[in-house]
Amino acid sequence: MTTARPHMVSCSLTMGIDPLVPHVADAAVDAAAAADATYRLLVWTSPSYPIGAFSYSHGLEWAVEQGRVVDVATLVDYIAAVIERGGGWVDGVLFAHAYRAAAGDDEAALDDVAELANAFRASSETALEARQQGAAFLLVTRKAWPHPQLDAFAQRHADVAIAHCVTMALACAAHRVALHAALHAYLHSVAANLVSAGVRLVPLGQTDGQHALAQLRGVVARATDAALTTALDDLGTGSPQLELCSMHHETQYTRLFRS
Amino acid sequence: MILTMSLPMLPPELSSSPLRAVPHQRVDGAARLVYRGDADGRTRLADLYQRAPCRVLFPDVDAGQPPQAVMLTTSGGLTGGDRLSLQIEAGAGCTLTATTQAAEKLYRALPGDAPTRIDIGLRVGDGAWAEWLAQETILFDRSQLRRSLSADVAGSGRLLAVESLVFGRTAMGERYDSGTLHDAWRIRCDGRLMWADTLRLGGDVAAARAQPFGFGTAHACATLVYVGADASALLAPLRERLAVLGGGVAATCIERVLIVRVLADDAPAMRAAVRIAAGALRAMAGGLPVRLPKVWDC
């Protein structure tokens, strides 16, 4: 729909008013680019994108084991804590800074964010979660959606897997996906992945999972807006019980998830 | 004259109170210690700088304990706008323990005050063993703290660092209901950032702590970090020692950085957990006595 309308407008106007032609042609190009960007974003945040997201619960498996997450309300509590005050929040802020550095073609700034993103991890399992998905994302995106900036980044960090929030932000900046939409979609995918984990772990019905995701709509939107205006020096977390869940998960006897 | 001229610039709630009309005198303290190994391999203090209210004491230590530096703040507490900077360097092959004489108290800041700043820098040389075993920081209501602990560990150097916070001493009826807290760790090995962490609370900190998966019933917390090539090998035996402490204590290891988190209902429970975790690590990793420096028993 968004692609069709400007195209029709350009047909009707190119006949008479010359000064408008370049403008209208630009609009058509912009619309096509926007559609391309939307398509990429949908692909990269889809659960079918092969980065292994399904195998990580970000400590949720321990919270379920302990009886702390037992229903939709407590699942929403857990995920909101991750996104507002925990690892999801950290990743959201880092995403915004990585995107801006990449969009400005500032390799040094991007590499600094990448180093911080790899270090800003509460436990070995959440570090694995971030780095393994980040490496998988970079690998598959370089093949399916190649871009010289992705290749240059991969060459600079050949010996180390960089966190998912950074590699996806880089891809979004390189392929001209707008920052706000990209970050919003990224944080939604974090929430959706944890809902999916919760549905399997508690267990909950599929409709319950969608209730949870609907309830998290405001959390994701607010965190997106807040992350865009947070300086790296002011980045921090306030949910130590999430960190304890993730640490205790490392010694959980029976586990479905890698984090 | 100066006083009356400054009055209109103060917030109304302050200018109405004659007792608070004069802004606090701010402190800007610093201490810098540099240790080097002498020709016989013994750790020697090579450089010392101290500026009030920072003072450093060098007590005699029991056999088996490393040379010790005890930091104290002679102002008896810190408030808004105060600054402290502590820089400790353990040269190659040195062994040393740095600690604090008592709990640090963070008092109420006045509206408009800058946060209290505490910056701790630790440099650990190749083959050195350094400990930063700070006693707890007590946060009073309306305190504002911005603290950073940055460490750089070179080569085969090892570091054991502890920092802890008490959200008001509940047994004394103290409450920490509002304020700001920004408590950052940055651990580097040979210049590369290995671990970063920041605890951040602001505004209604009682409500923030009570949020789901926040602090629960805890009024005290601690973070212990051990850096060394043997960190991952120490994780399992350390967990055995921590098992008695329950679900409020857990450990993890990311590459060569071992991290212990403690959430406890009150300061004594938190200190007990820190003693066990730090004692176990200094014994297992450093071959040192389990017992922490004597100031911890005062």
Automatic annotation (TrEMBL), chain A:
InterPro entries: UreF, UreF_sf. Its main location: cytoplasm. This is Urease accessory protein UreF. PANTHER family: UREASE ACCESSORY PROTEIN F. The keyword Transcription does not apply. Keywords: Chaperone, Cytoplasm, Nickel insertion. It comes from Hydrocarboniphaga daqingensis. Required for maturation of urease via the functional incorporation of the urease nickel metallocenter.
UniProtKB/TrEMBL annotation, chain B:
One of its GO terms (cellular component) is cytoplasm. Keywords: Chaperone, Cytoplasm, Nickel insertion. One of its GO terms (molecular function) is nickel cation binding. UreD, UreF and UreG form a complex that acts as a GTP-hydrolysis-dependent molecular chaperone, activating the urease apoprotein by helping to assemble the nickel containing metallocenter of UreC. The UreE protein probably delivers the nickel. Required for maturation of urease via the functional incorporation of the urease nickel metallocenter. Belongs to the UreD family. This is Urease accessory protein UreD. It comes from Hydrocarboniphaga daqingensis.
